Amino acid sequence: MHKQTLVEKILLKKNGAPVLPESEYFQVPVDLVLGHDATIALLIARFRKMGFKIWDPSRCFFAADHFAPPSTPERADILSQFLIFVKDQSVPQDLLFKGISHQLLVEDQRCRPGMFICGADSHTVMAGALGAFAIGLGSTDILAVLLTGKAILPIPETIRVNFEGRLPNWLYGKDLALEIIRQVGEGGAVDRVFEYHDSQSQLPMDGRLTISNMSVEAGATAGIFVPDKILREYLETRDSSSPSEDGFLLPDRGAQYCQELSICLDKIPPLVALPGGLTRIVPAGDTKGQTVDQVYIGSCAGGRLEDLEITARLLKGRKVAPGVRLVVTPASQKIYAECLANGIFQTLTDSGAMITNSSCGACGGIDKGLIGAKEVCVSTSNRNFRGRMGSPDGLIFLSSPYTAAAAALTGHLGDPRDVFYDSGAAR
Q: What strand order describes the sheet that includes 325-329?
């Protein structure tokens, strides 16, 4: 009998029939479809021309996160067309302006373990931290999903990732995501799924969301965490009730994997991805002396409460280095409200930070924190290819919030443990 991975288990349950690796393609019903103003806008003309209707608007999870508020007349037009489309198609509008779509998805009770979720954006994979099989698709595929409620896809092979050892209090989800990419290579997991095993349940939920989010940066179809007590606690807090065990599927003992990685938590230093992509990932100490013009704390990979909380804790009573811009963009209005209530924003603004509304903003090179030619930015976001955050002649280093906070304070990159001598202050 074929031993199944977690994704195979989910697809078997959703498909209602055996799903085996030798199958080439199969059709599976979709639980939720994620979309936002920038990508759904690409489909509007075809919907109108053909008179199409969405198969089930209640299963659409749409947000305006790229162009909200719009920074140019052209983007205002795109947003306007998107909002009209949402209304015409009877898609729920309650989450339209509440933050980045991927973050809103995992904050919402509709997103649960065991689901099959498709999105018109590659970082839809972030919902894998909740034990869901979440994938990003191109616009044509999303058009088909919106019309039929089903997706056609091959069964991806699975890479098992084991987190071993004890988690240091200065190591974050971004460091672990970068270490995984460093081991498999940028694009080294194309057409495959990462199945994450945190056997000691050490990794906090915010860190898991970052790891799942950045699975796609290695080319993976998805990155899914095996459900455990950390997920149960997260869902109990989010939903104010005990989660249903229905979606808490586990891979079979003896399941077949195409590759297996061991991530030794206590042997990984703070990491940094050098500008131009994720092919060069080095210890933060190797970047010592690199001057910085901007530090960006934000995006769906680095704008959660943990990211903002550690930044505020390390900068409390200190000032951002002269001439350095510290731009902070919470991933959702819920996180924004929490930071207002618990004093994080007060601490950050006292240190010299600039707080923006919850949106994709500078991460996608849209607005509120773009960099100019020859400027250097340290970012907690997920991508650093040329031109990603503004000028193609700007330089983007990716790091954890711990490393980014040290850069904001000193004005240059380096190992944050050299700046914050008491590493216990990190978490």
A: 281-283, 271-273, 395-398, 376-379, 294-298, 325-329, 354-355
Please state, in angstroms and rounded to a whole number, the distance separating the CA atoms of residues 163 and 177. Answer: 11
Identical fold, 23-155 and 156-268: no
Q: How many CA atoms lie within 13 A of 35 on its CB side?
A: 31
pTM of the model: 0.96
pLDDT at 426: 65
Q: What is the predicted pLDDT for the residue at 26? A: 81
pLDDT at res. 420: 86
* Predicted local distance difference test score (pLDDT) of residue 2: 81
Give the integer Cα–Cα distance in Å for 101 and 103: 6
pLDDT in tens, 259-302: 999 999 999 999 999 999 999 999 999 999 999 999 999 999 99
DSSP for 365-421, written as a single string: TSSSS-B-TT-EEEE-SS---TTTTB-TT-EEEE--HHHHHHHHHHSB-S-GGGTSS
**How many Cβ atoms sit within 10 Å of the Cβ of residue 80?**
14
Say which DSSP state 337 is in: H
Coil, helix or strand at residue 186: coil
CA–CA gap between residue 116 and residue 138 (Å, rounded): 16
Tokens matching residue 363: 């991460």
CA 205, chain centre distance (Å):
12
- Tell me what pLDDT residue 422 has: 56
DSSP for 53-119 reads --S-GGGEEEE--SSSS-SSHHHHHHHHHHHHHHHHTT---TTTTSB-HHHHHHHSTT--TT-EEEE
Axis crossing angle, helix 229-239 with helix 205-213, rounded to the nearest 10:
100
Q: Which residues contact residue 40 at a Cβ distance below 8 angstroms, ignoring those fewer than 6 apart?
A: 62, 82, 85, 120, 142
CATH architecture, range 156-268 = 3-Layer(aba) Sandwich (3.40)
CATH number for the 23-155 domain, one of 3.40.50.720, 3.40.50.1390, 3.30.530.20, 3.30.499.10? 3.30.499.10
Q: Domain segments of the chain: what residues? A: 23-155, 156-268, 271-426
User: How far apart (Å, rounded) are the C-alpha atoms in residues 174 and 179?
Assistant: 9
Q: What is the spatial distance between Cα 133 and Cα 110, in angstroms, rounded to a whole number?
A: 14
The rounded mean pLDDT for the chain is 94
- pLDDT < 50 stretches in the chain: 423
Please list, in sequence order, all residues whose beta carbon lies within 8 angstroms of the beta carbon of residue 300, skipping any fewer than 6 positions away: 100, 101, 102, 103, 123, 126, 213, 331, 360, 363, 382
Backbone angles phi, psi at 157, to 5 degrees: -70, 160
Q: Does domain 271-426 have CATH number 3.30.499.10?
A: yes
